[in-house]
Design brief:
The chain has 5 helices and 6 strands, in the order αβββαβαββαα. The protein is an alpha+beta fold and 136 residues long. Strand 1 (25-29) and strand 2 form a beta hairpin.
């Protein structure tokens, strides 16, 4: 199992401002890695899975020895488009709308910001989601 410190600091330095700008969002350690939540619902989770224990991650193109993975919720309209394109996206083995993205040097951080915002909107109470929509 990884700890928050296992996620590369350059990845956390990019994710933290994207998540913290969302109303009432907060960061906390998860069972593996770090997650960002709105109330009790997770809208982004970053971690480095043990590919020996969870070979699912090792089978992903470009995963390498120590992949950094972020999971998020995707609106139904976007889910298929994201995962059908392949690397760096794939559908998680759990949840009907959970997408995984492999993070690294190839990451488009503008796209990640949009995906995190959409995930927040999926998980936040309607009045908070509307506040984000108003600012966009």
């Amino acid at each position: 199992m990884s700890s928050p410190g296992d996620v590369p600091s350059e990845i956390l330095d990019r994710l933290r401002p994207l998540c913290r700008r969302l109303p009432e969002a907060y960061e906390e350690p998860a069972w593996i890695g770090l997650r960002w939540r709105i109330r009790t619902r997770t809208f982004a989770h970053v971690y480095m899975p043990d590919t020996q224990r969870y070979p699912f991650y090792a089978r992903q193109p470009g995963a390498g020895e120590a992949p950094t993975v972020m999971t998020f919720r995707a609106p139904a309209d976007d889910l298929l488009g994201l995962v059908s394109g392949g690397f760096p996206f794939f559908q998680a083995e759990w949840g009907h709308n959970v997408v995984c993205v492999l993070l690294g040097d190839h990451t488009d951080w503008t796209e990640i910001a949009e995906l995190i915002t959409d995930s927040y909107r999926e998980m936040a109470p309607k009045f908070l989601a509307a506040r984000v929509a108003e600012r966009s």
